[in-house]
Design a protein that fits this description.
Layout lengths: L2 H10 L77 H7 L3 H13 L3 H13 L7 H13 L3 H13 L7 H13 L3 H14 L3 H16 L3 H13 L8 H12 L4 H13 L7 H13 L3 H13 L7 H13 L5 H8 L3 H14 L1
Helix pairs in contact: 1-4, 2-3, 3-4, 4-5, 5-6, 6-7, 7-8, 8-9, 9-10, 10-11, 11-12, 12-13, 13-14, 14-15, 15-17
């Protein structure tokens, strides 16, 4: 392998892909494809979660990118520097600068000649619709070629495509083999997904025990999905894995600070209830607020109760009602909060509606 290919392999190998839904290729919103070959700005990091410092937790970072499907119109900004310093490679250097059409044109002849790193780069550009329309069928082709050459990131991606069966014939057996191959090579998302596959194959405690080592590997690499999965294993225990609420809480914190909203929801509840450690009412409220503002409907309803009962925050019936209205508009119905709403007068309800309109 030449120096250019080796550099590009190392750079593309730095791609960290979030866990997919088992049985389908994971998809999430991605950035609007640029209309021209113009460098794109880097995203701005979100503000730290409230009270994170009290828990000694790092500042939250955004969830990692996954390719979008054809028809998706919204996308997250691409940070051209997320792979680190630019390698001495023209195609990837252009990609880093946001010159996606140039990167595509430089990588294409190399990919056609069998350069696996260039194949992954083309697949990424086509899957995300960077500088050109999304073309998942063509992206799948290049992921497949790179997967055949043993590139773990391509193996992971192509496994998801095989499970979905939309752009290539569905092949669960090959998808499992590719996921295992990528997991064995240290791909964190593949490790998490392989654990999910094992759980699906053997429902119950046996499946959890088979999956746990893979979840732990993913968690050790800092994957939020793996950290949350490990927290659930420790929270429930199995015949061979002792229940350990303190460890479960530690892993919830790890996942929560990475922006994993379900972990934020659970952590908020645990801190208020004193599960796995002391009661932390104020911090619990802060995590619930973060999950709620992030769009987690269950967290919105629970936040309403914290405001109503004055737990971790000064009681506020208007804000409580407003958050429940937001959750209810999303389809959640809570009999307890319905009774609370019935006790409000018309003026309070109108104020709550006005507040809810600001929250959405």
């Amino acid at each position: 392998m030449g120096a250019r290919s080796a550099n590009l392999i190392r750079a593309v190998a730095a791609l960290a892909f979030c866990g997919m839904v088992t049985g389908a290729l994971a998809q999430s919103a991605q950035p609007e494809p640029p209309a021209a070959d113009v460098a794109q700005p880097s995203p701005v990091d979100p503000k730290p979660a409230p009270l994170q410092q009290e828990l000694g937790a790092p500042v939250t970072s955004t969830k990692q990118d996954r390719p979008k499907s054809e028809g998706d119109t919204k996308t997250d900004p691409v940070n051209p520097t997320r792979f680190g310093r630019a390698p001495a490679d023209e195609a990837f250097g252009a990609y880093q600068r946001g010159l996606y059409k140039t990167a595509y044109n430089l990588a294409l002849p190399r990919a056609e000649a069998g350069d696996s790193a260039a194949q992954v780069l083309l697949a990424e550009i086509l899957a995300r619709g960077l500088g050109m329309p999304v073309n998942m069928a063509e992206s799948a082709k290049w992921y497949g070629k790179a997967a055949d050459q043993g590139v773990p990131e391509a193996q992971f991606r192509y496994a998801g495509i095989l499970l979905q069966g939309k752009y290539v014939p569905k092949d669960a057996k090959k998808a499992k083999a590719l996921t295992k191959a990528a997991a064995d090579k240290g791909n964190a998302a593949a490790q998490f997904n392989y654990g999910q596959i094992l759980m699906q194959e053997h429902p119950g405690a046996a499946g959890v025990e088979n999956a746990y080592p893979w979840f732990q590997k993913a968690a050790d690499k800092g994957l939020a999905d793996g950290e949350y999965a490990v927290s659930q294993v420790f929270a429930n225990g199995t015949p061979t894995i002792p229940r350990d609420m303190a460890k479960a809480r530690e892993y919830l914190i790890k996942a929560a600070v990475k922006g994993y909203d379900t972990a934020q929801l659970d952590l908020g509840s645990w801190l208020v209830a004193g599960l796995g450690g002391p009661h932390e009412y104020k911090a619990g409220f802060g995590w619930m607020l973060r999950a709620a503002t992030g769009g987690n409907v269950a967290a919105q309803a629970r936040l309403a109760k914290l405001y109503r009962d004055g737990i971790g925050v000064e009681g506020d019936f208007i804000k409580a009602a407003a958050w429940y209205i937001v959750a209810k508009r999303a389809g959640l119905n809570d009999p307890d909060l319905e009774s609370f709403m019935d006790g409000l007068d018309d003026d309070q309800k109108n104020q709550a509606i006005a507040e809810a309109n600001k929250l959405q």
